């Protein structure tokens, strides 16, 4: 800081304008939380990941948008990722990815969470007899 200049005060308590406010306290979308309960009830281990992207300030617009999303990950008994599910930002549909069976993306209506559970269960590795 040069002589004669003053520093600007930091926002107290993490408060700021909407562009820089931290969404870390946000809850996952209700549909994703409900889906996690349905999948867990079938004995499948799940976790909900909250991805937060930070936007840098600049004198000109930056080419990348702010990213703030939630993702449900379903794991096999061995700990491998079997499926990932997000909620479409505009449509509200479940976006299901099943890499273990080669399905990159499948859309499922938000009012059909049991269909997502069936997809996840079908993607689980079969138990050895």
Model description:
With 129 residues, the protein is of the alpha+beta class. The chain has a domain at 48-53 and 67-129. The protein contains 2 helices and 5 strands. The chain has a 5-stranded antiparallel β-sheet, with helices on one face. Helix 1 (30-41) crosses helix 2 (113-123). The longest helix has 12 residues, at 30-41. The radius of gyration is 20 Å and the shape is elongated.
Search tags:
single chain, 129 residues, alpha+beta, five-stranded antiparallel sheet, 2 helices, 5 strands, disordered N terminus
Short description:
The chain has 129 residues and is an alpha+beta fold.
Protein topology:
Layout: H1 30-41, E1 45-52, E2 68-75, E3 81-87, E4 94-98, E5 103-108, H2 113-123
Antiparallel strand pairs: 1-2, 2-3, 3-4, 4-5
